[in-house]
Amino acid sequence: SSYAIAANTNMKEGLWEITVQMEMPGMPMKMPPQTFTHCLTKKDMVPQKAEPGHECKMIKHDTKGDTVTWVMECKTPEGIAVNNGMVTYKGNSFDGVVKVKHAGMEITQNMKGRWIGQCKK
User: Fold this and answer.
1) CA dihedral 51, 57, 63, 68 (to 10 degrees)
2) For residue 5, which phi and psi values (nearest 5 degrees)?
3) What's the per-residue H, E or C state across the chain?
4) pLDDT reported for residue 4
5) Least buried of 27, 28, 49, 95, by fewest C-beta within 10 Å?
6) pTM score, whole prediction
7) How confident is the chain (121 residues) per 10-residue block, as mean pLDDT?
């Protein structure tokens, strides 16, 4: 099972602060980074921001060593968005990238995460 593999991942469970820097081709200005918090566990290692009005489902999910990859499909008001993501955990931090194909565009989201404490119950 992928959970048994995930148990060996060098990732600290808890509340993470995640900063996303978006890059869009043809954008004259850099978008300001967005920061949010997300509770991550060995059962749920995909850092994601819940977007209102977006219905997402995991298509594929894999863990190899400290790297988690996934494909997620989200229904948005503008159509289907496909997210191809990858993060590599380093204990209490991670680096990752998500490529989002949506409405004929490809957006790159560079992610950095850091562990900030326990999850609120």
Assistant:
1) -20
2) -65, -45
3) CHHHHHCCCCECCEEEEEEEEEECCCCCCCCCCEEEEEEECCCCCCCCCCCCCCEEEEEEEEEECCEEEEEEEEEECCEEEEEEEEEEECECEEEEEEEEEECCEEEEEEEEEEEEECCCC
4) 54
5) 28
6) 0.86
7) 64 96 86 93 86 85 94 90 96 97 91 95 72
